[in-house]
Amino acid sequence: SAQWFELVDTMTIKAGPLRFVPKMRVQALAVTEAARMMAEAIDARERGTIEVAGPEISDFSEIARRLAAARAGKTGTKPPKVVGIPLPGPMARDGLIPPSPRMSDVTVDEWLQTV
Predict the structure, then answer these.
(1) Is the entire prediction scored with pTM above 0.70?
(2) Cα angle: 105, vertex 111, 115; to 5 degrees
């Protein structure tokens, strides 16, 4: 599975009004979508490697910014400043983008409506 939207919180370092998040290109999806798609493959008795991903290629720090803004909008507070920290190697480029995954239909915006 590609990275999950829900990983943003676990990969965020909080320091006062700042949030530091890895800056890496991802094709993230909701964890419920990853589980659903894998369960379908198991039910169909598929064999081999099955990769699943979201419908959009984006940056993990941008997902964090959008999540912070969505949460702030619901509480009426100012969102924290999200700072993307560049990572070296393949994660800085497309190293986390699966080459030919099955794609979820759930976009970041749709997922944000559920948090």
Answers:
(1) yes
(2) 160
